[in-house]
Design a protein that fits this description.
The chain is of the alpha+beta class and 318 residues long. It is built from eleven helices and 13 strands. Helices cover 40% and strands 22% of the residues. A hairpin with a 4-residue loop joins β11 and β12. The longest helix has 16 residues.
Length: 318
Amino acid sequence: MSTTNRRLETLSLLQARPGISATQLAERLGVTERTARRDVAQLRELGYRIDAEAGRTGGYRLASGHAMPPLLLDADEVAAVALGLRTAVAVDGLDAAATTALAKLTQVVPSRWRTRLSALADVEARSEQPGRHADRDVLIPLALACRANEAVRIRHRRHDAVAARPVDVQPHRLVALRRRWYLVACPRGADRWAVYALDRIDHVQPLGTRFPAPQPLTDAAAYVTDALAHGPWRHRIRVLVHTSADLVRDMVDPSVATVIDTGDECELHLGTDDLDWAARWLAYLNLDLDVIEPVELTDHLHGLGRWLLDRYPTSADG
């Protein structure tokens, strides 16, 4: 191993194993402890901040500095980063940045990995819901506010409203789900977390303060999933499905409906503003089921059935 490669490997070990000792470095690199210490000293001269702690439990740590050291990634990690740049949740205004970042990554990786990157560059990532992207001027300030635990004023448009309105919130987490971004935050004066779709937010203003908020969530993604399935919908739907809960869970996105195990059968709970959509979705599942509530859903299922019979008559109907 050349001196340059050994020092790059030293950086990689320092990054992957904070607190590694000179003895462990020497063993991993196949050199003497004196050589390992000398390599650390040379890296410090090059500007890398490497802290050392004395004692039996001490070791070297690569500290954060003013300049970012080279990224030390293996082949699989490079592939993961490249694929993430191609298939990340869409954010308006960052498409060009993702493209240039991938180009820069291709330039600095070893030549033997470039074929893999070229193949990944051909991957096309299209949003499942065109026009429902988060804006970078919304996403980035909200990410910073979540990290700083700083309250913000957002201009948010509810799903049933035409115009956006200002709302002061204490942010908690950003969640990416089904190729859309959501903010989990507590409105000022409220005592529970709420979920806001970022594509419905058009402005973010930091307030330089903090608002009282509930206890942090242990699983923000699960909270968003549940909120989407059981949010402030006009209709709360319960249907009894005459098959096992495990089978239905394999078919149903948890952000659309919740499966309740009742033994040999199960219930589906979901919310919607559109009973026609609910009828079509239940028909798509192709399961034996009975409507528990609302009773009007049965009429919509009958209407869908009549429309299908009229639209696609059998040959006997002539």
